[in-house]
Amino acid sequence: MPFGEIVCGSPGSGKSTYCFGKYQLFTALNRPVSVVNLDPANDALPYPCAIDISSLITLGDVMDKHGLGPNGGMLYCMEYLEANFDWLEERLKELGDDAYVLFDLPGQVELSTNHESIKRIVEKLTKNSFRLAAVHLCDAHYITDASKYISVLLLSLRAMLQLELPHINVLSKIDLISQYGDLDFNLDFYTEVQDLSYLENSLSASLPPRFAALNMAMISLVEDYGLVGFETLAVEDKNSMLNLTRAIDKATGYIYVPPPKSARPPDTIDQSNAPPTVRPNTYALFSSAAGPMKGPASDVRDVQERWIDAKDDWDAFEKREWRKEGEMVRDQAARANPVRERK
């Protein structure tokens, strides 16, 4: 059974950058990974692409042929992909049963919040035995403004209700948030979506008084559902990427799948070549997988210290560590290949 992520989010939220970072991380970890580009307008892909929708249809061709604008053309492309799902299905089968696929969606938010084509494509993928999770990226700078933060909450909630998948909302580019000024509250207020009534004063200051009742109604809507929460992401930070990967693996169930070459208990049948979902779990992962995540970036207070409270100090510390690591590798290489002096 293959696994995968539906990577969605507004334009500029870092979807393609995230897919490229995930590709590099999984390659280093020797985990299977393939990236599928479903954005017919993206002709400058930063990652190696296993399947590219431009082989089927492009936004430019649709706009020229049908006289549509960018948004209408994008909707047409997604409907065309839905009608020709067998094209995508055949190419996904070539990736194998152990595939882990990143589906890089276009940035038009209506595709994951209102339009039905992506939803029906996702339903067809799940019927084809894909275990999927939606990874919804939101630019972290939106939390520096109360009204923008509420809009991000509503957008995330709408995407969760539309896609009907295990859902991970992510505040991307958290490493850049200090450039936008101080936060009104600690970072955990925004990631855990705590008592939103504290935002009432900020909302009232930025909007006319006649919107006060509307503000509280939107706050109540988000709190009544109680679904939205956020992980954080700095795509160039290894600990941040690993922490988000663990969260997604828990959502898809991948964390319960042992590696193909894991050691078997004695007197058991060798099923190392079986599909992932049939393979016996030799490491008893249930207790550790179902428990709280532990790691350098698993506590949001550590994330705040790293990227907000003491960013410069941590940057200097990491540079020193990288320098020491580089010197160590250089010394090891010199000892392994000593230079012989000429006589």
Strand content: 5-15%
- Shape descriptor reads globular
Average predicted local confidence, pLDDT: 87
Percentage of helical residues? 40-55%
| Structural category | alpha/beta
**Going across the major beta sheet, what is the strand order?**
3-2-4-1-5-6-7
Alpha carbon gyration radius: 23 Å
Q: What are the secondary-structure elements, in order, as H or E?
A: EHEEHHHEHHEHEHHHEHHHH
Runs in which pLDDT lies below 50 for 5 or more consecutive residues are none
Q: Report the biggest beta sheet as strand number plus sense, adding barrel if it closes.
A: 7 strands, parallel
> Would you count the extended β strands for me?
7
Q: If helices are DSSP runs of H or I spanning 4 or more residues, what is the number of helices?
A: 14
Separation, N- and C-terminal Cα atoms: 63 Å
Give your account of this protein's structure.
It is a single chain. By secondary structure, the chain is α/β, with parallel strands linked by helices. Helices cover 47% and strands 10% of the residues. It is built from 14 helices and seven strands. The chain has a seven-stranded parallel beta sheet, with helices on both faces. Strand 5, helix 7 and strand 6 form a beta-alpha-beta unit. Helix 2 crosses helix 3 and helix 3 packs across helix 4. The chain is globular and about 80 Å long. The model has no long low-confidence stretch (mean pLDDT 87).
